[in-house]
Amino acid sequence: MAGPVFFARSGIGAALAGGLLVLAFPPFGPGLLAIPAVALFLWSVRNSGGSGRATFNGAVFGLVFFAALFPWIGELGLIALVPLVISQAAFTTGYAWLLHRASSWPPGRWVLAAVGGWAAMELVRERFPMGGFPWGMLGYTVGEFRWIRGSAQWIGTSGLSVVVALGAAGLVVAGRTRAPLLMAGLATIVLTLGGWLAPAVAEGDEVTVAIVQGSTPCPGDHCPDERFLTYQSHLALTASLPAGELELVVWPEGSTGGLRADPVLHPDVGAAIGEQARRLDAFLLVGGDRPLNDEEWVNVNVLFDPDGDIVDEYRKRHPVPFGEYVPARPLFTWVDELAAVPRDLIRGQGAKVFQLDFGQVGSVISFEGSFARYARDTIAQGAGLLVVATNEGSYPYSPASDQLIGMTRMRAAELGVDIVHAAVTGRSAFITNGGMIGPTTGLATAEVLTGTVRLRTGGPTLYTRWGDWVPLLAVAALAIRLTQIGIKRAGGHPKAAPDTGSR
User: Fold this and answer.
1) What is d(CA 300, CA 311) in angstroms, rounded to the nearest whole number?
2) Among 218, 294, 310, 416, which one is most buried in terms of CB atoms within 10 A?
3) Cα–Cα distance between 374 and 365 in angstroms, integer?
4) Domain range for residue 98?
5) Half-sphere exposure of 286 (CA within 13 A, CB side)
6) Residue 329 domain-assigned?
7) How confident is the model at residue 501, as a pLDDT?
C-alpha cells in the first residue's frame, strides 16, 4: 500500500480525523474544523478496502475523538473514563461498518447513507445506553457562529449536525458530483440568512438576576465538611448583595445539602436562606442534594419566595450513571471506586415550571443541560426563562465547564430563551440573545455575577414544537432507500433478463 491507500487503510487518517474533530469543540475551535475532520473520517471509511479495515477505522476514530474530548472524566478514575470512551467509540465503529456496505453505491446515494447514518447514530447515542451521552454532537461545533446558530430555533442542534455531516460527505464525493456539497452550501446560506433576519430571542420584561458562585474550600477534592462549608460560602456572598435591587438570586447545584446543610431537613439552614430572600425581597433558587434514606437521595432546586418561605422544588430527572447512581449495583460490588456513590439518585417526575411574580421560570440540573429534550419540555410547558444549575466540583480546572456552556448556549438558540448558567466551581454566565455568552466567572472562584435577562413571551419556536424533525427525516430517507434495495433483492430478476441500467 502506498500514499492515500495506506493512509486510509492503516487507521492513520481516522486517527487524525478524530484528533482534528476535538479541536472543533471548546475550549479550542474554530468549529469549522468539524467539516474537514468528519470528511477525512468518511473518506477513510469509503476507501478502506474492506469491512474489517472500515470497522477498524471507525474504532480508531471514536477512541481518539472521545478520549481526547473529555479526558477530564478520568479525574473520577479510569473506571469512569475507559468504559465511557469504549461505549461511545462503539457507535462510530458500528457506523463505519454499516457505511462501508454502501461504498459501492453511486455518490449521491452514498452521501444519503453517510448523512442518514450519522443522524441515526447521534439520535441513538443521545438516548442509549443509560439515557445517553450527548458530548461530541456535530451541531455543537457551530455554536460560536451567531447567525447560523440562530437557525437552531427551526432545526435544533441535531439538525445542524445533519448540515455539518452533509457538508463533510459532500467534500468526499466532490470529485464525482458536486450536488451534495452545493446542497450543504445552499442550506448553510439559507439558515444563516434566516438566523440573521429572524433571530429567536427573549423579548419580554427584563429581570435582574444574581448568580452566587461560592466555590468550595477544596476544589477538585472532597474535604471534611465540604458541603456545609460550601453552603456557608454561598450564604456569606448572598449576604453581601444589596437589598431591593434584585428579583432573582440563583445558587448552583450542590450549594446546599449533605448531612448538615439541607434547607428542608435542617430548619436553621432554611431559616438562614429564607432571611436573605426576605432581606433582598427576591426569589432565591437554591441547589442541593437531600438524602432520603441510607440508599436513596434526590438532587433538587429549591425555591424560596420573597417572604422567605420554601414554595416549590424541582427534582433532577437524569442522573449521571456511576456518578449519581450505580446501574445494576450488585454486579459492581468489586469496584472500590464506587464506594464514593453509596446512594442512588431517585429521578424526578417531569418538568417543573416555577410561578414567580415576574413570570414563569424553569430549571434543569447540570448533566440535563447537555440534552435538548429536558430544556425543550420545560419551555414547552410555559417557562420563559431557563436556569441551568451545575456543580463540576470534581473537575474544576478542566474544559468541562466550557463544553457544558457551549451546549447550554444551544438550548438558548433552540428555544429562544435566556439562560442563567450557575456553577459552584465551573464558570457561571448569563446567556442571552439567542446564545450570546456574556461575562463569565473564573474557574473555582468565589464571586457574584449580576446581570439582566429577559423573559420569552412569544410563542414556542419550531424546534420547541417539533423537536428533532430534521435528523428523523434524514433517517427516514435512508430507511426508504434501504427498503427499496430490500424489495428489489427480494423480487429478483430472471437470469436472462437484460440489464435495464436502472442503477
Assistant:
1) 13
2) 416
3) 10
4) 4-199+469-491
5) 35
6) yes
7) 36
Q: Does 160 have pLDDT greater than 80? A: yes
> Confidence band (pLDDT; 50, 70, 90) for 362?
very high
> What CATH number did the domain enclosing 323 receive?
3.60.110.10
Residues 492, 503: Cα–Cα separation, whole Å: 15
Mean pLDDT value across residues 134-147: 95
Same domain? 186 vs 229: no
My answer on whether omega of the bond before 27 falls inside 30° of 0, hence cis, is yes
Whether residue 263 is preceded by a cis peptide bond, meaning omega within 30 degrees of 0, is: no
Cα–Cα distance, 111 to 178 (Å, whole number)? 11
Distance CA 95, CA 99 (A): 6
Backbone torsion region of residue 41, taken as left when φ is above 0, otherwise alpha when ψ lies between -120 and 50, otherwise beta: alpha
Give me 136's grid cell.
Answer: 461530541
- Specify if 294 maps to a domain: yes
DSSP code of residue 266: -
Residues 176 and 259 both lie in one domain: no
| Angle in degrees, CA 297, 302, 304, rounded to 5 | 155
Which backbone phi and psi does 173 adopt, to 5 degrees? Answer: -105, 15
The string of pLDDT tens digits covering residues 23-37 is 999 989 899 999 999
